[in-house]
Design the sequence.
């Protein structure tokens, strides 16, 4: 209770003083208030900083030493009545008593003996027309009075009350706040442990339940974060966060009035695959090989692994089962090794017979033999796909051959038989 007055610089002479727990002037004053016979207390300075000594009665005179002597405003009783005060906050129809704050008075107060406890202290203040506030010590019940405007909030273990002559003011009705209540039901799912890398807004809510309600009230909120130590709450808009470090719990919020998301089942890619050659892959840059899919696959599994990779157009499966390798369709030339190379064609990549009027199919691994070998037309180093288009667009072309290494394309009007030169792949063209 900060109602002390400085009496002198120095210690106690000719009287008795007992040392109390060390502390500042407020703590020393509070210790003095807790003793009925304490009227002067001494706070150390200099080397004696924080020392607290309490004097009994008025036995001390000014002495020497590094102290400041203070007198409390505790006075003799003021004939405070000892009858019990009413239990209600409003003592009479013309008097209103309201809680003011927790703490003492930074101002002038007077102690009232014989009015210990809230009820008696309140009654004594109401009966004293000069009293506008009263303070009750939380432990020993000591009572102190102050004028209406004589105090500002101070420190100490006190409960402060204001006394108004007249009826208690009527609180205005609080305006209705539209759409502040959370939806009747919603559910929360754990997202991750950590903070938000993105945009999140602080909320006044504290704790997981209150934070969930705050998120549910905000139509744009779909995630919230609660600090694991201080329970602070943060709201995020439409899952605008990615996982970040931090001592938080992250949660998704789903309102029951929201439609369930419709998740379409993924459509597995449809495709066909045809043998390309016997052997592995020769490539100029190693990174052109996209992935080693897995060990121990069969043909269908290896084809599916290729189909699941949008960049894959050819796959290699080790004979008799084993590792499966997938690659871009133009990444490889024919190589050696115990592998079978297969070209994968997705349905959307297949030639539309209505628009092109022809289809192509692998014939054999090898060049053209027979009388037709001398009639081959060189179409350039255009690769397998373009070579097939060139043949299909020619009304006289029935077969084409593609060199495995340099992608050279040769067109034939027909009559070729299989040649042992395995540096080529042979394809037939069929028209509708």
Sequence:
């Amino acid at each position: 209770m900060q109602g002390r007055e400085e009496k002198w610089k120095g210690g106690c002479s000719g009287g008795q003083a007992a040392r109390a727990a060390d502390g500042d002037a407020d703590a020393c004053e509070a210790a003095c208030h807790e003793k009925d016979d304490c009227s002067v207390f001494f706070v150390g300075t200099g080397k004696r900083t924080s020392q607290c000594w309490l004097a009994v009665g008025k036995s001390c005179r000014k002495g020497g030493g590094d102290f400041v002597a203070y007198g409390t405003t505790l006075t003799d009783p003021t004939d405070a009545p000892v009858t019990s005060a009413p239990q209600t906050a409003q003592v009479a129809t013309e008097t209103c008593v309201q809680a003011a704050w927790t703490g003492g008075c930074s101002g002038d107060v007077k102690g009232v003996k014989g009015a210990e406890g809230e009820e008696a202290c309140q009654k004594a203040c109401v009966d004293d027309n000069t009293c506008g506030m009263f303070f009750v010590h939380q432990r020993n019940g000591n009572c102190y009075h102050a004028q209406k405007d004589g105090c500002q909030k101070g420190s100490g273990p006190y409960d402060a009350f204001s006394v108004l002559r007249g009826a208690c003011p009527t609180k205005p009705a609080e305006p209705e706040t539209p759409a502040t209540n959370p939806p009747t039901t919603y559910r929360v799912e754990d997202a991750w442990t950590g903070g938000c890398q993105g945009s999140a807004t602080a909320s006044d809510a504290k704790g997981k339940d209150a934070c969930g309600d705050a998120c549910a009230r905000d139509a744009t909120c779909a995630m919230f974060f609660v600090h694991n130590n201080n329970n602070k709450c943060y709201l995020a808009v439409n899952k605008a966060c990615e996982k970040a470090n931090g001592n938080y719990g992250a949660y998704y919020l789903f309102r029951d009035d929201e439609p369930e998301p419709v998740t379409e089942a993924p459509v597995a890619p449809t495709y066909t695959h045809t043998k390309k050659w016997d052997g592995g892959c020769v490539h100029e840059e190693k990174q052109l090989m996209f992935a080693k899919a897995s060990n121990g696959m069969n043909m269908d599994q290896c084809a599916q692994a290729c189909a699941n990779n949008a960049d894959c157009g050819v796959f290699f499966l080790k004979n008799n089962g084993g590792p499966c390798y997938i690659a871009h369709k133009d990444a490889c030339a024919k190589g050696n090794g115990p592998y079978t190379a297969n070209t994968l064609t997705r349905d959307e990549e297949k030639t539309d017979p209505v628009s092109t009027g022809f289809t192509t199919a692998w014939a054999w691994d090898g060049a053209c033999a027979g009388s037709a070998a001398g009639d081959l037309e060189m179409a350039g180093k255009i690769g397998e796909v373009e070579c097939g288009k060139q043949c299909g667009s020619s009304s006289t072309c029935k077969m084409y051959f593609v060199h495995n290494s340099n992608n050279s394309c040769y067109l034939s009007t027909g009559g070729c038989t299989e040649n042992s030169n395995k540096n080529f792949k042979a394809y037939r063209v069929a028209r509708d």
